[in-house]
Amino acid sequence: MANTRRIDREIAKAKHRLARLQSEDSTALSVGDQVKLAGLTGIAVARATRRKATPAAERAADRIWTGAQEDAAADVRVLEAER
After folding, report:
1. Number of domains present in the structure of the chain
2. What are the C-alpha distances in Å from 54 to residues 10, 41, 51, 57, 59?
3. What is the mean pLDDT of residues 47-72?
4. Would you say 31 and 11 are in contact if contact means Cβ atoms under 8 Å apart?
5. How far apart are CA 39 and CA 6, in angstroms?
6. Cα dist. 44→40, 58, 70, 74 in Å?
7. How many Å apart are CA 39 and CA 31, to the nearest integer?
8. Other C-beta atoms within 10 Å of 36: how many?
9. Which residues constitute the domain of residue 71?
10. What does the pLDDT read at residue 1?
């Protein structure tokens, strides 16, 4: 019973993290991804002030968000299967 509660708590945490990632809350990202995202944001801002497009930075940022969401969803699936 205690083991089930532990897994249920972990599932709830993982689902909460996934929801935060889906709403693009950057604190839900790993530190490395936060640093990458900050760098890409800086590049986008610098280019935007010179009135240039930033498709590469935008695509890279989208890949960070998508990858983090996929990882969190996989964690939820693994925990639910373990239950």
Report:
1. 1
2. 38, 10, 9, 6, 9
3. 93
4. no
5. 37
6. 6, 8, 24, 30
7. 12
8. 16
9. 2-82
10. 55
Q: Give dist(CA 82, CA 11) in Å, integer.
A: 10
Query: In the chain, where does DSSP find H-type helix?
Result: 2-22, 31-49, 55-82
Cβ atoms within 10 Å, residue 21: 21
pLDDT tens by residue, 2-28: 678 999 999 999 999 999 999 999 999
Nearest alpha-carbon partner for 7 in 70, 74, 73, 76 = 76
Q: What is the pTM of this model?
A: 0.84
- Look-up: residue for tokens 């935060």? 20
What six digits make up the tokens of 81? 């299967």
48: amino acid identity, one letter:
A
Q: What are the two backbone dihedrals, phi and then psi, of residue 23, each rounded to the nearest 5 degrees?
A: -90, 10
